[in-house]
Amino acid sequence: MNPQHLSFRETLRSYLPPWLSDRPTSGRTVGFRFLYGLAAVLDAGMQFLVEGMQARLPGIGTPTALPYIGRDRRIIRGPHETNAAYAARLLDWLELWRAAGNAYALAKALQAFLAPDHPRIRIVTRSGFWWTLDPSGALTWRLAIPNNWDWDSLTHPEHAGCWADFWVIVYPPHFEPDGAWGDGASFWGAGKIFGQDVSLSNAETIRALVRQWKAAHARCVTLIFAYDPASFNPASTPGSVGMPDGRWGRWSKDDGTGRRVRSRRADARYWEV
Question: What percent of the chain has pLDDT over 70?
Fold first, then answer.
């Protein structure tokens, strides 16, 4: 081994005069043991120095430094994201921020937070432009002609000119859906949100991710957690069953007989961002 890679203790004998070297056969080891103790202190100091320099390097230094690096680089860690996966994202932080403001960066941030599942993420604009980020990391896009995404043209016609509005759709696997109120098997309360098995802190972090990575001029109208993998298909034709029909801007609608009924799909959950 190259002596430059050895510790002070391992190389101590190489630069001591014979009268200070350890001579166990004659019982003369006091001087060497004293110097060996000093070398041990030097080794400890050198180890602290090396670890301190490496701590700023994600994936090389101690994992305990990752939260501080992530705070400085503004990369939020997922609750189940491994040290290796988070370190890899921290290394790529400049590239991630270079793409901030577009759909791909936002979808990647949400997908990473929901690791290790990496669900499919879709983003659709009011004009019917769709982006899809698959679990494999492949990104595809589609412009629906004619537009198949009509969220609130009937409930809020004044929003027709809000061209920068968009919606985020997260597909399974993600948070388990809740039951009905009072059924005895729901997740109501206890630090969780209504309707899904997700903590309030994680829910707020997801909302913060959307606000952090979206374009400054854009507005996320609703974050949708879909439980049917086939729902909200970008290839759907306008007016297809299960697609927004212009009345999804409110939770309920008139069924034509004066009764109020659910206006949105029941197999999804909807978060206001």
Answer: 94
Angle 103-113/200-213 helices, nearest 10 degrees?
A: 160
Q: At what angle do helices 66-73 and 83-91 cross, to 10 degrees?
A: 40
Contact predicate 124/132, CB 8 Å: no
Per-residue tokens: 107:
């979808």
Q: Could you tell me the pTM of the whole model? A: 0.82
Residues 141/142/143/148 CA torsion (nearest 10 deg)? -120
Residue 258 burial class via C-beta count within 10 angstroms: exposed 0-12, middle 13-18, buried 19 and up? exposed
Interval 197-255: pLDDT, tens: 899 999 999 999 999 999 999 999 999 999 999 999 999 999 999 999 999 999 998 88
Question: Residue 14: what are its φ and ψ, rounded to 5°?
Answer: -70, -20
Task: Give me the DSSP letters along 245-268.
Answer: BS-TTSSEEE-SSS-EEE-S-SSE
Hey, which residues does 220 pair with through a beta bridge?
166
211-225 burial: b if 16+ Cβ within 10 Å, else e: eebbeeebebbbbbb
Establish whether the linkage from the previous residue to 135 is cis, with ω within 30° of 0.
no
Phi and psi torsions of 133, nearest 5° = -105, 110
Backbone dihedral region for residue 47 (phi beyond 0: left; psi -120 to 50: alpha; all else: beta) = alpha
Give dist(CA 77, CA 69) in Å, integer: 11
Give all strands of the β-sheet with 129-133 in edge-to-edge order.
139-143, 129-133, 121-125, 165-170, 219-226, 268-272
Average pLDDT, integer, range 43-70 = 91
pLDDT in the model for residue 176: 87
